[in-house]
Amino acid sequence: MSATDPKPRLVVGIDLGTTNSLAAIRAGKGARVLRDRDGEPLIPSVVCFLPNGEMVVGRGAKDLRLQHPDRTVFSAKRLIGRAGAEVDREAALLPYRVHRGDRDLARIEVGGRDYAPEQVSAFVLQEVKATAESALGQRIDAAVITVPAWFDDAQRQATRDAAQLAGLECLRIVNEPTAAALAYGIDGSKDGTVLVYDLGGGTFDVSILRIDEGVFRVLSTSGDTHLGGDDFDQLLSERILAAAGASANDAYVLQAVRAAAEGLKIELSQKEQATLRIELQDRAPIDITIARAEFEAMIAPLVERTIACVHRAIADAKLTADDIDDVVLVGGSTRVPLVRQRLEQDLGRAPQTGVDPDLAVALGAAIQADVLAGNDKSLLLLDVIPLSLGIETLGGAMQKLILRNSTIPTSSTEEFSTAVDGQTAVVLNIFQGERELAQDCRQLGSFTLHGLPPMPAGLPRIAVHFLVDADGVLRVTATEKRTGHEASIQVVPTFGLSRDEVRRMMLDSIENAQQDYVAREAIDLRNKAQAMVTGTRKALALASLPPDQTFSVQKSARALEKLLQSGADAAALKVACDELSKLTATIADDVISSAVQRSLQEEQGSNTNPSAS
Length: 613
Ligand code: ADP
Ligand code: MG
Prior knowledge:
Number of domains: 4
Bound molecules: adenosine-5'-diphosphate, magnesium ion
Oligomer: single chain
Helix content: 25-40%
Number of strands: 26
Strand content: 15-25%
Number of helices: 13
Largest sheet: 6 strands, mixed
Shape: elongated
CATH topology of the largest domain: Nucleotidyltransferase, domain 5
């Protein structure tokens, strides 16, 4: 981001959840959620394709879920970027049609039309974007989007594609637990270990983060991809249906009962008991009262499963519960008091509750978005290098300086030498990839270090320094240690960017490197011209040139000075410099001879009159 940017870019953080999605924006030290007209922050990640061709997204679609089970797509996040057997496993649990399409990738079929999961996610993102834009009264430029820590490259890339389809530039994909930790004010300024417990609608994730000098590293993850608040609703629904003596065959009844069960569950997070009035057709209304204790007994086995995952994650991180400095709650289902109690009991400390658990991820993403937009200069450093970075060495080998999965910012230096006697320049080719031969890796850029003193092969000491900054920009510097000669280049390694984006960025940086070089040359030339003007004036004062030569030299120097003052281009400066240096070629000799004469005279003078000194 350049300093001349007219106004800060509007970048939001988006939690693209399995159950609910939402956007937030930086506000002061924290962030605020962008709510819809009714003040609702959460947009159900649900899309319903009605038989009349209409599409409903969000809350409206959630209400249609059981009436149009085969036309209402939810949990697209379970399918995004998935291929092969994973698709079959998820498809078996979803009421709409899912099959393997092109390249074995998951496809969703609704009413004879085929959709990629990223298209469905794009519809959800469009709804989030529209809601956020109307809350802000402004267009949004870009977003940081969160994904589970365990999402692989394909799932991350598909999420980026969804953003692009929705007309959103995805600035960065950020891990959900990292975003949540940020929202809780764990900003990397203090080292520590954080356990993030995320119980959402349909998924449970526990992550252990290690924060070291501002870098968030995911030490371990565990969880259950089919465990969440939906299961609590299901258990309550069964209890309600049994009490009402209703059958589970009617989609409308089921829908109503499911919605009522969720409402009851949410009430039970606040109250010791809650009552529900069920009014089925042709029957007297029935009141069903459920005590919190009864609900807790129902869900206890599910909660225990999450606790077992917590212990697995701690063990996988090779830690014990005592090593955890903070416990952070994420996901709407962590509002259930039993969940908090069990966690506290097991970890021996109360979890942090300062942030709305179902908003935390979006709030943290908004903070990260603001940093990436360049509006906040305090560094937050959250990413890893997906593929190793290195240079090509003799014989085309790829020498890695930064290994894959290093957290950024990161740097590394190695020393190299020349391969040929008397070599005065070396070319540095920068590559990214895991293969041993440079030709099998992706070339990121190339530059030359000039000005090596001619020496036998192997004697020059060339330090190559790789530095990846918080934005993922790689800067490579080569320094010849004896002479201090230095050259460098900047490139942007890929962070799950599309190949085209990476290519464009690469070309950009190479083009800029060229521009930088030209600019550098122009600066050098101006410095040289200025020195010539000053030097010529000094020389003229000393030398005894014939008046006509003095005049033409003065004229030429004045012309060059004028060009400098008017900011003339390099070509014009070069012509004027050449002209002046031709005219002054003889002055040098003159100045030397007059200087010699003067010193001779002084010598004589001192000889004749030693007492004068
Ligand atoms: P996801 O990350 O899967 O998109 P969320 O974090 O939005 O999901 O969590 C949604 C779940 O949280 C739903 O099952 C919802 O019923 C549940 N939930 C929301 N508020 C409460 C509450 N006060 N008490 C219990 N459960 C809640
Ligand atoms: Mg979530």
